[in-house]
Amino acid sequence: MSLTLVASPRTANHMPSPALAALKPCVEKAGFVCNTIDLNIELYTDLKKNYNEFKEIDSYFQTDLRYISQDALDLSPLLEQKKILSKSALDLYKKHLHYWTDYIISLNTEWIGVSVLSVNSVLYTVDLCEVLKQKSNCKIMLGGPGVSTFGISGASNFGEFMIATKLSDAYISGEGERSIVALLKGEKYDGYQQIDNLDELPNPDYSDFDFSKYTNKNQAVAITGSRGCVRNCTFCDIKSAWKHYRYRSGSSLADEIIHHHKHFGSKEFYFTDSLINGSLKAFEEFLDAMVDAKQSGKLSESVVWSGQFICRPIHQFTEKWFAKMKIAGAKQLHIGIESGSESVMHDMGKKLSNDDIDFTIAMLTKYEIQCDMLMIVGYPTETKDDFNQTLSLLERLSSYNEQGTISGVNLGKTMVVLPGSPIGENLSHWGIEYDENNNWFSTKNPSLTFKERVRRRLLAQEKCEQLGYMVRWPLTTLATLNENLKLNKETI
Fold first, then answer.
1. Do 177 and 213 share a structural domain?
2. Are residues 462 and 316 in the same domain?
3. Pair (230, 362) in one structural domain
4. Residue 191, in any domain of the structure
5. Is there a single domain that holds both residue 170 and residue 259?
6. How far are the Cα atoms of 101, 125, 168 from residue 133, in angstroms, in the given order?
7. Which of 55, 158, 170, 271 is the most core-located residue (most Cβ within 10 A)?
8. How many structural domains does the chain have?
9. In this structure, what CATH number is given to the domain that contains residue 282?
10. Residues 410, 438 share a domain
11. Based on the domain organization, do 226 and 148 belong to the same domain?
């Protein structure tokens, strides 16, 4: 039995697909042949000289799929999305698809596995699988977070849609290391049976990847220290994928970093964890192991790492932690601040104060560690006063932006009610209902309409721009919001 694993765009261009690298050694350890192809970087490589066409295709991938046909067997609405592409962009896109499907088929493997990272990978996956099925009798499996995202064409998730339209033969939700081997063996597979001991998993294998194609020239790779989350934020669906929090030992994490540093020259590492400091015990073990590896010469002092980080109360996370993080190689953190209102933060399940946030940012400044702030505009309980407190927070922290500590702000597309999140699983508690355009509103906070949420999102962006913050992905986000307003026949 043999398998070709491919990563579907749109993902990051700075490093190889971590999913493919993690799955390859598991498949090969079970006695199967496994090839890996990062189609995301191949698309970027094929089109980077045609910047305008690439941007068109990139926008096409980010089409909002909530507003298409409810007929799960009707592919015509997806075909309609391609009309946004110019002829030159469409021709280049088709050339890319046909070249790579021919190459994949030439490998003559029994299965083709497609890693679907998010909703932004859905349209490419549909197009790829259509061409593969037209040209061969291959069997296709899907995996990754994107198989269960949002749902399109009346199907409860993307995986079911692909099965219904006969564009895929199987899909795996949840962890794939064991499930993909079981599927290849023809056995029952269930990705929701969590792997308890993450230290038992082999080191990811990046030997199939050409690092010179990626934008990060430090041979950057991803690393996973934990799965699941110690928090239960009401807006997050992470616990629908991982019921229990599992983490690796600090020594195994340091050993993997040493391995990639030795074999590929990797100097930069990106944690995939929901929170790198979810477990303080595990995080301290990792920091100590990294400090030891650097002091013993196993790792260069230039090795750095980034990840998602939780802002903790001052008494839990004192200055000594930040000092050790700096020595261990912390470069950049992505922190879910979410709101400037303590009331809203508490409703979200974040028991923080503004003093805790201010202390964290001040410590990062002192120890020269950068951060991005992740914000949510339009939480169901957010009042105008709460939103004004968010604007005040942006103003209060602007001096840290000027000093270079805050490298960016992600404002998102306003609050999304995710299936599987505590809010999504208990809509009545929050007074959540949906209008004819599938936009949520709250009967308990009736002034927070879809239009009002978009208005606040635009005001937050204006405030960020006035204060000099870098707003992450503003153009594509604003394009989506404007398109949604048109569908609602509204204007701001």
1. no
2. yes
3. yes
4. no
5. no
6. 10, 12, 9
7. 158
8. 2
9. 3.80.30.20
10. yes
11. no
Q: Is 378 within a domain?
A: yes
Pair 233, 351: CB distance under 8 Å: no
Neighbours of 402 (CB within 10 A): 12
Residue that finishes a domain, picked among 185, 216, 246: 185
Structure tokens that stand for 416 in this block: 């999304």
Boundary residue ending a domain (129, 157, 185): 185
Residue 123 structural domain: 2-185
Per-residue pLDDT of the chain (492 residues; tens, 9 = 90+): 899 999 999 998 999 999 999 999 999 999 999 999 999 999 999 999 999 999 999 989 987 675 566 676 777 777 777 888 999 999 999 999 999 999 999 999 999 999 999 888 999 999 999 999 999 999 999 999 899 876 666 677 899 999 999 999 999 988 899 999 999 999 988 766 788 999 999 999 999 999 999 999 999 999 999 999 998 999 998 887 788 899 999 999 999 999 999 999 999 999 999 999 999 999 999 999 999 999 999 999 999 999 999 999 999 999 999 999 999 999 999 999 999 999 999 999 998 899 999 999 999 999 999 999 999 999 999 999 999 999 999 999 999 999 999 999 999 889 989 878 999 999 999 999 998 878 899 999 999 999 999 999 999 999 999 999 999 877 667 766 776 666 566 666
> In CATH, what number is assigned to the domain containing residue 34?
3.40.50.280
Q: How many CA atoms lie within 13 A of 401 on its CB side?
A: 18
User: Is 162 inside any structural domain?
Assistant: yes
> Looking at the domain assignment, is residue 190 inside a domain?
no
- Distance separating alpha carbons of residues 307 and 406, to the nearest angstrom: 14
For the entire predicted model, the pTM comes to 0.89
- Is 204 found in the same domain as 153? no
Task: Name the residue with tokens 């914000």.
Answer: 375
User: In one letter, which amino acid is 134?
Assistant: Q
